[in-house]
What does this fold into?
Amino acid sequence: MKITPEIIDKHGIKPEEYKKIISLIEKKPNLLELGIFSAMWNEHCSYKSSKKYLKTLPTKNKKVIQGPGENAGVIDIEDNDAIVFKIESHNHPSFIEPYQGAATGVGGILRDVFTMGARPIATLNSIHFGSHEHPKTKNLLNGVVSGIGGYGNCMGIPTVGGEVKFDSSYNENILVNAMAVGLVKKNKIFYSKAKGTDQPVIYVGSKTGRDGIHGASMASAEFDKNAEAKKPTVQVGDPFTEKLLLEACLELMKDDSIISIQDMGAAGLTSSSVEMASKGNLGIEINLNKIPCREDKMTPYEMMLSESQERMLLILNSEKVENAKKIFIKWGLDFSVIGKTTNTKNLVLNFDGEEVANLPVNSLSNNVPIYDRKWKKNVTSIKKNLQIDFKSFKILESLKKILMSPNNAEKSWVWEQYDHTVMGDTIQKPGGDSAVIRIHGKNKGIAITVDSSAHYCLANPVAGGKQIVSEAWRNLISVGASPIAITNCLNFGNPEKDKIMGQFVECIDGISQACTYLDFPVVSGNVSFYNETQNKAILPTPTIGGVGLLKNLNTMMTKNIKEVGSYILVIGKTLGHLHQSEFLIEVVGIKDGPPPEVNLFNEKNNGLLVQALISKKLLNSVHDISSGGILIALSEMCISGNIGAKIKIPNDKIRPHEYLFGEDQSRYLIEVNEKNKNEVYKILEKNSIFYEMLGKTQKDSLVLDKEFNIKLNNLNKLNSFWFRNYFKEN
Amino acid sequence: MKSSVIVFPGSNCDRDVAVALEKFQIKNQMVWHDEINLPKSDLVVLPGGFSYGDYLRTGCIASKSRIINDVIKHAKNGGLVLGICNGFQILIETGLLSGVLLRNKKLRFLSKNVFLKVINVDNKFCLNYKKKDIIELPIAHNEGNYFASKEQIKKLEDENLVAFKYCSEKGNINKSTNPNGSSNNIAGILNDQKNILGMMPHPERLIDPLLAGEDGSLMFKSLIKSL
It folds into this structure.
């Protein structure tokens, strides 16, 4: 077939990129070779728009074993244990087919983790939907939640946390970001770098089908009149096969059979083989007739570009092939020697006795075009004096409205669909500030959280970027953990537009500042651009997944109030920042103005102090103050502990609304009992930490002096109303 | 006491239950579904999970697996069999227990802690619950809605073969404390000889104060005591 400009265009390759291809490979590519280039050079695989800025992120600290560039990041949690983790997006497929899109998002990220030799021990997710009133939202939400559950539940890996948010900017572009966390022995980590020539290349897992063929939009009629080719581009997941693949891989990983391993994720066989060869500075030769196919008469083009799920590529020690085969046969999986490593540094594909493609590996990986895209600084609105008649927004009514809003409602409707207790090590369940998972058989654990604050990032991307990293850090501190590192999923619109690119560049700047200051580096992640439909982009939505260590689970902290008659203190200064707050957005209806600024110095100081108080066992409960401010945080503490509180605003320099609903950063609510009060005061004062006494806990109701008194039962009902009502389950 | 945990492709609570058994000094071995002979055991556990992907019907393919013949023999000879969650579904498919497990009434997966009233304490699994008849255990299933004919339900009730019922914290058994739509709030049942227990809740997940409860431990301690 002749390669016409239209075909090149349909592969998403720009004319100047095509010229670069010809000069790199010193020939005109055939269709298969062009397809391979399009799979490797697209934004998703190549990071061509983002690489320049991703390089600026801090990626190392004393605990980091593996930073970005592998299947997932790895951190040291002592005693020869290491944690492998990563977050990834599956946005576009989930909008087309929510169940399968979300399910395969979970499947893909789990493979990234167990490819490195780790047994996955938890997953989390961050999902964003359009307005709840949008006609598609209910179906998408239901499909995504059951897809995430469907995959994770079947795999037997607890889904322990996450977030669910709504905003009309996601009406036509929902976000599904899935994070997986695994446990591995430090000396048993597996990498994707190939080593040695003439080593067998093995295909294991599911058979290859025509699902998920890259860019099926262009693959269709012109290439193949067959209607089969019009199958949707969304992959179909089979968690059962993945469970078998997990067990088979971990069984094989017990000895030294595997030289290198790579899962077949985006761009399937193409990217996995190229990545292994490229990292090892080797060539790879594949006989496509050996690929286990699900369907008849699959072409080399389809095989190389299929994104069928639950497949892995291995390079094995040649003596170990027979033993490895036995393991995969036992688990009922395909096992096929499809080729070998070579010293040619070329990717060579043979089919029916002919060479059908021959490309220098470097041209596909190291020589990907890198763009320095134009970007524009975002205009941040300045803080104005709010022209609001505060009296017309009664505090209790405002509290109720926020608790009942979809973004702030209690979300057990969602997480009850995820098996969060399987594996028997979920010490802190969904609903807390972070999930806590015990390291199996030990008295230590890890804390995990996922956070995003897209409307802050829209209003000021630098401040927003700083804030999400800080919030993740704070959430880990709140359960008593020492934060170690993060993974990030950067969801944005079209990077070819300078405004969007500006959001990206500035968010990275903010993330980078906070990561550096808090010694909280990025060890893995993914970028998802083009979340845009008909010129309407999503809010800039970087999602941060943070991991921390709890050396002693006996000092783990929770947010539920523990006893009547104890004291509630606010740690950190409350200035009453209402712009971008839930109060202004949900209650008043004002969406502009700057987000709260994080002072990283205070963030670190306040956080480390709270951490120290927790480890000294001086606190009853801790909750970070985030979305909604003090009153929402306190309500959540009361509801989860089923104990009330009586509070009085300790500050008359700002308005009550500003004090109670302001979203100033770096703050915590802590509960201290009578016995520990003086000791806590002493430590706070000695360290010059700003704190205020808010009130005392009491039975049954939440009371604000001279303002309101509401029964906990009612508060709880309001908070848990929204989801069940939305799905008519009340 | 010796136990065998049967591992099917897709089982995913096999490790959890093995950990629980070993914690209470029950000598356990894992038995692969493709084995023909069951090793000598006092107790056989069919663990939770998605055996064979739950394709066709939950528990159906597992009930035809190679090892099951020996499990049935073991059960018919009076050996103890415990089926948890998917294990309960498998026991139903083998015919060792009566009834069916339908999809949850709300048609969605449900993972949460529930309260259970121990109805029958006169069996080797539940001896220890005499002291505490309202317990808390997690459920995590999509098909746990127990259904049987009126006559079968009457027989279960009359002959005291219901082991557990979903209830409130105070022990009230009614529609509002029924998480999945099960007939008569049934969460677990016994066979006529009371050597086979099938239950949807997971005792192996609450065996530790750190996990916020130990009500599952009592079952494993009962088993030890019974032999």
Notes: Chain A touches chain B through 31 residues (CB under 8 Å). Residues 498-518 of chain A form the longest helix (21 residues).
